[in-house]
Amino acid sequence: MSRISIAVAALLTALGFSLARQVPVSMVDFAFSPDTVRVNPGDSVIWTNNGTFVHTSTSGVNGVPDGLWNSGDMPHGVTYVRAFPANGTFNYYCTHHYLSGMKGVVVVGASGVNEAPGTAGNTPSIAGFPNPFISATTLRMAPAGAGSGSISIFSAFGKLVRTLEATDGSFVVWDGTDDHGHQTGPGVYVCGYGSSSLAVTLLR
Fold first, then answer.
1. pLDDT at position 117
2. 141 burial level (CB within 10 Å; 0-12, 13-18, 19+)
3. Of 138, 49, 133, nearest in space to 96 by CA
4. How many CA atoms lie within 13 A of 62 on its CB side?
5. pTM of the model
6. 94 to each of 22, 153, 183, how far by Cα in Å?
7. Angle at Cα 164 formed by Cα 159 and Cα 166, nearest 5°?
8. What are 161-182's pLDDT values in tens digits?
9. 86-106, pLDDT tens digit by residue?
10. What is the pLDDT of residue 79?
11. SS (H, E, C) the chain
């Protein structure tokens, strides 16, 4: 484990975030592989486009989104991470290829039935796209208006870098600057929202 990874793990623990697994799902051709994953509450799923075509990971069924998450377009090599804080069963699809059968399921908990499907979306969560980023990343909060309505961004060593307020309670854009408008250096930053966190990587 690298020094940065160790620092991020220590920071998450210090901030009260539990350490959790990151379960991979590959996008290849017109399928999610595996198309069904089982995770524990607090784990994350990381989707990686290893294929040629642009794909998305969008929560919902048969082309109808439910608003829990949407990765946006993911070209080859792009990743998207989403944490699942509570039990539930979550269907998702690729907006471009669901008619070709590109659909998946995330089951959180032993059976995913301790809560009705989708209820984990009531627990604050955060996603960022693009990640890694160069000039700016959009940090989306779900459900909209949950938590404090603000995101705190920390360096990998625990220093508060920036606090961003969401005017509509759903998303903010971080351009890599601190609260004084100064550019920060490249590296891993931890974005905290409510009880959830997201590590984003700034490239320069």
1. 39
2. buried
3. 49
4. 0
5. 0.49
6. 20, 30, 35
7. 155
8. 999 987 665 788 999 999 999 9
9. 888 888 999 988 888 899 999
10. 95
11. CCHHHHHHHHHHHHCCCCCCCEEEEEEECCEEECCEEEECCCCEEEEEECCCCCECCEEEECCEEEEEEECCCECCCCEEEEECCCCEEEEEECCCCHHHCCEEEEEECCCCCCCCCCHHHHCCEEEEECCCECCCEEEEEECCCCCCCEEEEEECCCCEEEEEECCCCCEEEECCECCCCCECCCEEEEEEECCEEEEEEECC
Q: What domains can you pick out in the chain, each with its CATH number?
A: 18-118 (2.60.40.420), 124-204 (2.60.40.10)
For the chain, the residue count is 204
- The tokens of 145 are what? 């208006």
User: Which amino acid would we find at residue 94?
Assistant: C
The arithmetic mean of pLDDT across residues 6-34, rounded, is: 72
